Amino acid sequence: MAAETLDSKTRFKRLRAEIQATSGPPVVTNSGDQLQVIAGVGTAVTLTLTAEDASGSNTGITYELVEAPSGVTISGAEISWSDAVYAATGTLSVKVSDTNSISIVHTVQVGICDCQNSGE
Fold this sequence. Notes:
Elements: H1 2-22, E1 27-28, E2 34-38, E3 45-48, E4 51-52, E5 62-67, E6 72-75, E7 78-81, E8 89-97, E9 103-113
Parallel strand pairs: 2-9
Antiparallel strand pairs: 1-4, 3-7, 5-8, 6-7, 8-9
C-alpha cells in the first residue's frame, strides 16, 4: 500500500509539471514595470491590461486587484483610477490567472503627472 501511495504522489507531481510546461503562467503583454500616466488633477484614468497564456490564448484570463493606490478599481482587465491626484505614485499589483488556475502577480509602479503640453 505504501508503494502505491508513493507512486500516486509521483504521478501527480509529473502530471502537474506537464500541465505547467504546456500552459505556463500567463504573461501581461502590454505593460512593463512602470506606468506614467498624464492626466489632469481629478481626472479619471482607465487602463486595459492584456495577457495571454503559454499557448498564446487570452481566452479565460482573469484579473484580480491585489494592491493599489486609493481609488483604483478593476473590472475584468480594465483598471480605473477615479481620483487621480497630482504627482500621485504607488504600487499596482494585479493577479492574472488562466483557465488552468495558473497565475502570476503583475506589479508595476504607477505615477500620475499633471503635466502640461503632453508631458513636456
